[in-house]
Every structure is written in C-alpha cells, then in structure tokens.
Amino acid sequence: MRVNVYGSELSAAVAAAALSSVGHQVDWCPHPEVPWQRLEHAEWLLREPGLKSQIDAGCRSGLLRLTDTPTREDVEIHWLALAPDQRESAEAYVADIPAAQSTPLVIVNNSTFPVGHTERLEALLGHTGQAAVALPDMLEEGRAWETFTRPARWLLGSEDRQATAQVRELLRAFNRRQDVFQLMPRRAAELAKLAIIGMLATRISYMNELAGLADSLDVDVEHVRLGMGADSRIGFEYLYPGCGFGGPSFSRDLMRLADVQHASGRESLLLEHVLDINEQKKETLFRKFWHHFHGQLFERRVAIWGAAFKPGTTRIDQAPVLTLIDALLAQGVNVSIHDPEALPALRELYEQHPRVRFCDDDFYAACEEADALMLVTEWKCYWNPNWRRLSELMTTPLILDGRNIYDPDYVASRGLIYRGIGRRADPPNA
Questions:
Q1: Which residues form the UDP-glucose/GDP-mannose dehydrogenase C-terminal domain (predicted)?
Q2: Phi and psi (nearest 5°) for 198?
Q3: In whole angstroms, how far apart are CA 332 and each of 283, 327, 396?
Q4: What is the pTM of this model?
Q5: DSSP letters along 28-84, please?
Q6: What is the pLDDT of residues 139-152, one digit of tens each?
C-alpha cells in the first residue's frame, strides 16, 4: 500500500520503519516543530533498540522516503502519530485531503487525542469511501520495535467495514501468530487506551500506599505483595512499590484521562489521588535520607544510580530523579549520578550546577565518599553490585533502594544499612 506517516513521535518513527520493512511504500513527514534534521540526532531515537538501523534500511531500500511536506496524491493510508498538543495540525492535515484525493482512503489516528477526536477527523474528510479509525499507540519505550512488530494486542476503533479490512491488510504481516485486533467503536478504543494507563497507575500507587503503611506497622511489604499477587483475581503485574513513575507517554496519558473526566463533568477523586500519591513518592528517598540524618544534610554527598524514567530508555520526562535532585540541591547536598543512557538529557538541566557531578563510565565512582546511595532506575548493571567495594567507598554505607531490587537481609549481612520502599532488614536473630 501507499502510506503517508505524519508526526515526530516515537510511534511515527516505528510505524514508518516497520510498515516499509514489510513492503509498503511509505512517505514519512515529521511534524514541522521537529523536522528530520533535528529528529535524526535525538537521543531517544538513537538509543531505541534497532530503530535507527531499521529506518536506515527502509531508506536504502527505497520503500521509506523522508519528506518535508506530506504526500497527498494516491495515498491509501494516512497514519497520524502526533503529540496531544498537535490536534490543530492533525485537523489542518486532514482538511487538505479532500481537495487532493477523491479515491478511497483511511485515516489511522495513532495519536492520543481527546475521546471523540477520530470522529471529528472523519467529519473533515466529507467524501464517501474516506474514513477515519482509531488505533491508539500502545508502544513501550525501550522495546518499541518489538511491541509494534510482535504485538500482544491492537485496539482498533472502527465502525466502517471497508476501513477495518484496509487496516487489517496494512498490518497483516504483524498479525500472523494470532488475531491481536480487538475491534470496537472508535470512542471505546480511545477511552480504553486511557483506561488501561489509569488502571496501571492505580495499581502502582496503591502498592506505594501499602508500602508506606507497611513501614508504619513494621511489616515487610514484600510479604503483602506476594500474598496479593497469589490471588488469581489480582495477579502480580504492576504490584511493585517504588519511588514513583514517570515518562512522557504514561504521565501524559494520565493527564489526558483526567482532562476527559473533567470535560465530561465527572471529576475523579480516585485519579487525583493516584497522581498525588505518585508525586509524593518521588520524594520518598529524600525523606528517608532526611530521617536517617535527622535533617542535617548540608554538604553531605549522595550517589544516585539511574535517571531514566525506566530501564531501556534515554528519557527523563517526569522522571522521579528530577524531583529527587531538586530536593537534595535545595538542602545543599552534593549529588553524584550515573545512568547508562540518560546522562545527556540530565546534563541539559544540571551541567552548570556546582553540586552535581556526572559519572559517565564507572557507576562505583559516583559512590566515592557518599553518605547514601539511592537506587532510582533499576538498570540491570545495578542489580548485583560489589557490596564490599561499596562499603569501602562510602562514608556512610546507607542504601536507599527505590525499586526494591535488593535483598534487605543480605545487604545488611554485608555491613551496609538498607532501606527500601516498605522494606528493611530484619534485626539480628529475628
């Protein structure tokens, strides 16, 4: 098929590369706010596993072409993958289509716009045989190529039989193992995507509340987590307490769900509470640090392992580390930080700050003379550290585990002080 992809989001880049890789003729027009000249140097694009090489391969084959202006004529599919604040661009793009083409075509709305916006885009077409479907972006950063080419599901919002068949054919190469399409009305698909994000965030925040309660009651939250997860009605997914979640898509979609509820006149006290809990949890490691040193923090040094909002990405959008660093710097704490991928993004914010030191190669270097080590992002390189080396490097061997990846009793047995999220080492001979 002849496909035009419009947008500069991760979902646009993946769609353009993946669709061209299976034989579709794809023209990709990035959004004017982030043209290809800027996009090709973006850290998130370069670091997303396999993506840049797939884009390059598509360009070499001639099946993927990068353009500055959208292709209009003889296009069967227009794939819109835009940021939530680019709705006007989407409408202007779609409004120009009827003048250029009268043959059948399908608009695939892969953007996270307000519920009902796909219908609005279709209304701008005005031609019989031209339809718009909702196909919400379900990519996972760090494994975007895999989640597109080997999907667990696609929420396809469509009420047009011909458009449904066209989208199925477009994505047939990625639908071989089983039928992963969940067909539903457009508004239902748009809301379902937001509802999924809201449910995941609620589970995480609920576990974080339980972790705080467990701390107060001197209970190890890991026992509680295992007990809950063993119940078949609950399961183990997203039951891990931590120091908060972030990310451009996750946080943005939560706010979009809040906006949808507000616009409908149905304010959600639950969602507001979920968001409040998450913001509070971003400060939890700072509060544990404060408590341990009874508020005497000036000129102390903290090592931070991990800055990206999750392993496998370079992004720090709404990441817990930003709240944490700001709280530490406000108290005159010196910060040494390591991350395998996200330091370039962090440097843009803190490189000129005299109390921030970046450790590019050796994550142990960040721990030299540190009064605490804060584990913020659970990159695999941090899972099995040399505890003896850490205790020798650190002034105070305090481990603040923001992701509960370490065994509290083992860490304590190595002579270090452990504090997790609702977890702590058992007293000797307990």
A1: 303-408
A2: -60, -40
A3: 16, 9, 17
A4: 0.86
A5: EE--TTS-HHHHTT-HHHHHSTTHHHHHHHHHHHTSEEE-SS---TT-SEEEE---G
A6: 988 899 999 999 99
Sequence-distant (6+) residues with CB within 8 A of 28 are 4, 5, 12, 13, 16, 64, 65, 66, 67
Phi, psi of 286 (to 5 degrees): -65, -45
Q: How far is CA 348 from CA 150, 180, 184, 358, in A?
A: 35, 40, 43, 12
Q: What is the mean pLDDT of the chain?
A: 91
Specify the pLDDT at position 274.
87
Q: Give the integer Cα–Cα distance in Å for 109 and 72.
A: 17
Do residues 51 and 14 make contact, with C-beta atoms less than 8 angstroms apart? Answer: yes
362 φ/ψ sector (left φ>0, alpha ψ -120 to 50, else beta) = beta
Q: With CA atoms as reference, report the closest residue to 380 among 323, 341, 335.
A: 341
Element (H, E) at 337: strand 334-338
Q: Tens of pLDDT along 112-161?
A: 888 999 999 999 987 667 899 999 999 988 899 999 999 999 999 999 99
Q: Is 89 helix (H, G, I), strand (E, B) or coil?
A: helix
Instruction: Return d(Cα 368, Cα 213) in angstroms, integer.
Output: 33
CB 138 within 8 A of CB 155: yes
Q: Indicate the DSSP class of residue 263.
A: H
Question: At what angle are helices 186-217 and 221-229 packed, to 10 degrees?
Answer: 140
CB 112 within 8 A of CB 252: yes
- Return left, alpha or beta for 384; rule: phi > 0 is left, psi -120 to 50 is alpha, else beta: beta
Question: Which H helix or E strand runs over 149?
Answer: helix 144-149
Q: Please name the helix (run of DSSP H) or strand (run of DSSP E) that holds residue 336, with its range, or none.
A: strand 334-338
Residue 430: pLDDT above 60? no
Determine contact, residues 335/325, Cβ cutoff 8 Å: yes
